[in-house]
Amino acid sequence: MRTIVTRLLPAGLVVLLVVAFLGCGLLEPLIKPAALTNVQAVALIQISGVPYIDQYYKETVGEEAAQEFGEIGPVTPTGTWTADYQGEGEWVIQGPVITKSWGECLTTWTLSEADSEIHLIGFKCD
Q1: CA spacing 20 to 30 A to 101: which of 23, 24, 111, 125?
Q2: What's this model's pTM, rounded to 2 decimal places?
Q3: Which string of b and e fits 65-80 if b means at least 16 CB within 10 Å?
Q4: Which residues are paired to 49 by β-bridges?
């Protein structure tokens, strides 16, 4: 009887640990890994987002507010960019750009792997 308990106890502890880690989300990257790497996520934003920043800005703040602010472009990515995987195929990408009118600005974007949707969620200039 004692050998059955000593065999089942470690297996039971492993099951409890796995359930606890799943509940905390610590194993999520192993179960649902990102389809993209950090470098690929940044490149997608720099290629498909930054050149069209005026369009994305209008979607974010609305047509009237964008007209009051004026055009942002042309814009060039610069400096160090970061990409943080949020899980569930969602990314937050942040990086500096240089604008002709306002100099250096910090942009923050979201990228969805599921539908390739890109959104500009932050635009801050010095």
Answers
A1: 111
A2: 0.72
A3: ebeeeeebbebebeee
A4: none
Indicate the residue type of 49: G
Q: ∠ CA(108), CA(55), CA(77), 5° rounding? A: 45
CB 75 within 8 A of CB 98: yes
Q: Could you tell me how many helices (H) and strands (E) the chain has, helices first?
A: 5, 5
Distance of CA 25 to the CA centre of its chain: 17
Q: How far apart are CA 36 and CA 23, in angstroms?
A: 24
How far, in Å, CA of 106 to CA of 35, rounded? 26
Helix (H) or strand (E) holding 44: helix 38-48
- E strands within the chain? 75-77, 82-87, 90-99, 103-112, 118-125
* Cβ atoms within 10 Å of 111's Cβ, excluding its own: 24
Name the band, by pLDDT with cuts 50, 70 and 90, for residue 93.
very high
